[in-house]
Amino acid sequence: MQAVVIIGVNKMLTRKPVVAGQFYPAQHDGCVDEINEYLEEVPANKGLPDTIAAGIVPHAGWTFSAALAAAVFSAIKQQHEKVHTFVIFGAAHSYFGNSPVVCDRGHWVTPLGEITVNEDLADTIVKSGQAVSDSGAHRNEHSIEVQVPFIQYLFGGAKIVPIIVPPSRGAITLGQAVGDIISKQDKKIVCIGSTDLTHYGPHYGFEPMGTGADAIRWASKVNDKRFIDLALRLEPEQMLASAAENCNACGAGAAAAAVAAAKKLGKTEGLLLAQANSSEIMLRKMHSETSDSVGYAAIVF
User: How far apart are CA 88 and CA 102, in angstroms?
Assistant: First the structure.
């Protein structure tokens, strides 16, 4: 399936959805209905920071991730009725370059319609020297796409700057640069880091504690918690190190960039809104047990 229409070198005119109908509904009404269902399940948020500069969300199929994404976007909406632009740091699932890569032109399409790339902000980020421009690199990356319908639904008129972020030191310098750029803007801009946590079990080839309920509990309560705690303390360097050593984040670069940006914007701690894993969600929703599990967290800064 052709995912994008490209005119010229690295100039993406329209990025079409590649996981609609797989990770989330392919039709407008289905998307809206599911988003509303997840938003209705979000508990009342108390103790939120007065302003929210950044968030961390998961990016699995909505069955597993949307409740946590809804918690983050709902918290942002509660504190900021209008957001001009979301800088979305995504995981590098199919991009193997060393530098963070920006989609700096055009529109993204979801079942809810088009959303515009903030080209001026994207250009400024590229000019900082901490990322390169290559819209085509985004053609198959789902970790950003699955967030976009929430933004379209809750923040009409908002723009996006999608950036794929490999898990390297460059994620931190990118986040710092983006934070510095945002601090000089007169419009509300929020950074979103998209990552799932520990991929545990024989299907993923990672089972240091064996299999079974106790092993999955370790993945969530110990291994995921290591990464979450580092994020809450705004320690992006240690987040990257933990992911490399403990295999507890598939989008460590994206999360580290969001944390580095939040730190640059004066944040000193994060707030964990929710934590879950796919095993417990499958048991609750489908009454099915599995030896594999993926962790998720919803955090705001």
Answer: 10
**Which of 225, 298, 231 shows the shortest CA–CA distance to 270?**
231
Phi, psi (deg, nearest 5) at residue 162: -85, 130
Residue with tokens 């060393």: 98
The span from the CA of 64 to the CA of 53, in Å, is 25
In terms of pTM, does the model score above 0.85?
A: yes
Sequence-ordered list of residues with C-beta below 8 angstroms from that of 280, at least 6 positions apart, any chain: 220, 293
∠ CA 239-244-249, nearest 5°, is 60
User: Checking DSSP bridges between strand 132-133 and strand 101-102, what pairing results, if any?
Assistant: parallel
Q: What is the secondary structure of 162-223 as a DSSP string? A: EEE--SSTHHHHHHHHHHHHHHT-SS-EEEEEE----EEBGGGTB-TT-SSHHHHHHIIIII
- Check residue 6 and give its pLDDT: 37
The predicted pLDDT at position 294 comes to 98
Domain boundaries, the chain: 4-40+49-300
Asked if the 4-40+49-300 domain carries CATH number 3.40.830.10, the reply is: yes
